[in-house]
Amino acid sequence: MSKTVIVLVMLGVFAADMSCSGAPAEDAPEPQDPMQAEAHNENGITLAKNGQYAQAIAEFGKALQFRKGYADAYFNRGLAYRLNGMPDKAIEDFSQAVELKPQHAEAYFNRALALAEKRLYDQAIQDFNKTLEIDPKFADAYLSRGLAYRLKGAYTQAIADYGSALNLNAKSARAHFNRGLAYADQGLSDKAIEDYDNALKLDPKDPKIYVNRGVTFARKGKIDEAIGDYNRALKLNEDYAQAYFNRGHAYYLKGNYQSAIEDFTMALKGNPQDAEALYNRGLVYARMGRNQDAISDFTRILESDPKHFKALNNRGLILFQTDKLDEAVSDFNRAIELRPGDAFAYFNRGLVFADRNLHDKAIQDFEKVLQLNPKDADACLNLAEAYDKIGWKPQALETYRKYLDLARPEHLEIINRVRARLKELEATPDQKPAEPNR
Questions:
Q1: What's the rounded Cα separation, in Å, for the pair 400 and 383?
Q2: Are 267 and 238 in contact (CB under 8 A)?
Q3: How far apart are CA 352 and CA 363, in angstroms?
Q4: Which of 183, 274, 313, 432 has the fewest CB atoms nearer than 10 Å to its CB?
Q5: CB 67 within 8 A of CB 32
Q6: Full-model pTM
Q7: How far apart are CA 29 and CA 63, in angstroms?
Q8: Nearest C-alpha neighbor of 369 from the set 386, 393, 389, 390
Q9: Own/partner pairs, 413-416, CB within 8 angstroms, 24+ separation
Q10: What is the pLDDT of residues 203-232, one digit of tens each?
Q11: CA-based diameter of the chain, in Å?
């Protein structure tokens, strides 16, 4: 069962005080009305703290009208822009703030966060570096730089930064949690679990720590422990869609399909078009033989995302199993158009053609599969059988023998059947093969 686990992380850590104080730069113009500027700045701070970011931005703008070169107003407006989902504007204001106050560590820090939101991780890291050059004890800068390193795949540097953050604050649950994520990304499950354990000792009411520890337990094959952690997360947050989703996958692995269906359904409650939850629920429905329910889920995905390859391929398989062969071929055709280098859709379409006795077309698809994956034993067997059915004896003999080289030992019943057929073919006089309809 294909499964994508979404690991929840923090995109950054706020450390800046909205009411940053300080004098204007020496080369700034004379204040026009410093008292008015200060009043608008304070109003902006109050509005921002109440979540009224657009109004706060307007107030900081008025502060700048009354006092040119007001670094604090630029900084605070930059924070409001960030909180309002406007990273480009935030970056402009933080840049003004550091130009006016070159030692403004928190302006560099928050500009780095805005750059990270735009996935400009290298530039963000440069600003985190500058932050730490100004203030080497800025723990949140280590945390956020570690996240930037992790998101660009530099796990060793990320882990080092989380360690530095812990040297400054040994009781930082966030540092343990984020280092656990980095260890998990590296496949170091035991180290990850150790950090999650430490994070939970410091912050036992954070559901995302339980969810990510559960994911790590599941990767180690400890499914019951994983389910226990998802249960704990849901006790803390009964609407936590990710916990339902992951627990649904764990139930699937245990063969508890009804519970898996119930959890994927709960995961869909907040977002009925969540493609991952629909896809995984569709797979479980298919495993339970509830074919129409599975088709319905895959169809819902395709209505919003017609290029969802896995939904097309799996809906095609179920249509094939329910004898809707033309519709199945249509889905496989679309899947092949999307991923012409993916063997699965060719293989499945080949099965449909073989079922309809269109062996020439089946041969073309199975040959394509083996071109893409020369060690695909199933494609090899189906190709041999297609050759056999149209009387291509030399090709059938060669391909049956190749299958025996590729077959896994546990498939003994099929191996014995192939060996028996080989003996029959070897004992049969050669005949003129049928002409293929290519």
A1: 9
A2: no
A3: 11
A4: 432
A5: yes
A6: 0.82
A7: 14
A8: 386
A9: 414/381
A10: 999 999 999 999 999 999 999 999 999 999
A11: 106
